[in-house]
Amino acid sequence: MQHMRTSGPGDEVAALDVRAVSHSYGQKRALNDVSFSIAPATFTVLLGLNGAGKTTLFSLISHLYDTRHGSIRIFSHDIRRASGEALRRVGIVFQARTLDLDLSVYQNLSYHASLHGIGGREARQRIAALLETVDMQGRQHDKARSLSGGQMRRIEIARALLHRPSLLLLDEATVGLDIESRAGILATIRKLVQAEGIGVLWATHLIDEVEDADHVVILRRGDLVASGKVSDVIRANGGSSIRETFSKLSRVDAAGMTETSP
Ligand SMILES: Nc1ncnc2c1ncn2[C@@H]1O[C@H](COP(=O)(O)OP(=O)(O)OP(=O)(O)O)[C@@H](O)[C@H]1O
User: Fold this and answer.
1) 87, 127, 208, 209: which one has the fewest Cβ atoms less than 10 Å from its Cβ?
2) 182-201, pLDDT tens digit by residue?
3) What Pfam families is this protein classified in (predicted)?
């Protein structure tokens, strides 16, 4: 199994470093001793079928849940001991829709800006620039309720970027969207990595959202089964494509036992 290099003395600080993280809901183990790190300004796909533990991992990284076992560092700031410093560097787009439907696009964004202490002209400028980034310029007075699912997602992405994070987390951001909206949103996010140097962790169960140049972290029922560059993960598992490799690594037999032991 290939693992991404962890940061060490003299190395670049990891955008995200997850070390030996476990999480249970009562008796149910959702994450089991998961470790990986992602470098700044890279696009990393967090791949896993339903129930693999992606949302649980996001809830721990965003400090919605306390990390009781293991540690999570964001640009070297520990999410438990320095949560303010760590969270300042992260923007999050959750799987569930979170816009206030009765407010306008601008009101949704300016409310969030003020939560981060950004107001006045600075907020207006950032909102205008970000609406362009997500291709929603001219829509600030529209009621959130009037937007399509894909447009709402774009506003949520703009909102997540308002405080200029260096790491962006997106949990199944394209779920429920048509093919064109999915491709458009994915392209917008990939551009952010290229143009702004933002590190992205993109959680999905859709293998067609992975490109050859990406990094992947693959979870299966709470276990990390692979992480690294797509080409390295394919090679290490003897596959010929990431689709084949993911299918092999995600396989669970009828008795619920995993078929491969990477
Ligand atoms: N609040 C909860 N209480 C009990 N079990 C939970 C809870 N949330 C998640 N689980 C269980 O933990 C495991 C991981 O779930 P999680 O939602 O993190 O996976 P996921 O990869 O995000 O899947 P999905 O794409 O379906 O949301 C699953 O078995 C799920 O049933």
Assistant:
1) 208
2) 999 999 999 999 999 999 99
3) ABC_tran
Question: Alpha helices, DSSP H only, in 62-102?
Answer: 83-88
Q: Name which residue sits closest to atom 17 of ligand 1, judged by CA.
A: 55
**Interval between CA 56 and ligand 1 midpoint (Å):** 6
25 lines ligand 1 (CB under 6 A): yes
State ipTM. Answer: 0.96
Task: Report the SS3 class of residue 169.
Answer: strand
Domains and CATH numbers, the chain: 1-89+165-262 (3.40.50.300), 99-164 (no CATH)
DSSP 182: H
**69-74/77-78 β-pairing:** antiparallel
pLDDT in tens, 56-104: 999 999 999 999 999 999 999 999 999 999 999 999 999 888 899 999 9
What are the pLDDT digits (tens) for 129-173?
A: 999 999 999 999 999 999 999 999 999 999 999 999 999 999 999
User: Is 55 close to ligand 1, i.e. is its CB under 6 Å away?
Assistant: yes
Q: Which atom of ligand 1 is nearest to the CA of 222?
A: 14
